[in-house]
């Protein structure tokens, strides 16, 4: 699934994101809103990842949808 599709279906995708990243709060998931750059930033912040690693994990997650 591409990021435009994820953003458009974010309400449905939030549950899948929570399954993958259980530390995210509802407010954080609402802030992300399906935008890759927001997800990458939150992954960096919450999990202490480098930008490259966070982007890889976000892309891997999107490819499993």
TrEMBL record:
This is CsbD family protein. SUPFAM superfamilies: Hypothetical protein YjbJ. It comes from Halomonas citrativorans. The lineage of its organism: Bacteria, Pseudomonadati, Pseudomonadota, Gammaproteobacteria, Oceanospirillales. It holds the Pfam family CsbD. InterPro entries: CsbD, UPF0337_stress_rsp, YjbJ, YjbJ_sf. Belongs to the UPF0337 (CsbD) family. Coiled coil: none annotated. Residues 4-56 form the CsbD-like domain.
């Amino acid at each position: 699934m591409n990021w435009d599709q994820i953003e458009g279906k974010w309400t449905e995708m939030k549950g899948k994101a929570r399954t993958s990243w259980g530390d995210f709060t509802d407010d954080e998931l609402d802030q992300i809103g399906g935008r890759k750059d927001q997800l990458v930033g939150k992954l960096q912040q919450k999990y202490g990842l480098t930008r490259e690693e966070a982007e890889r994990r976000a892309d891997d997650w999107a490819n499993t949808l």
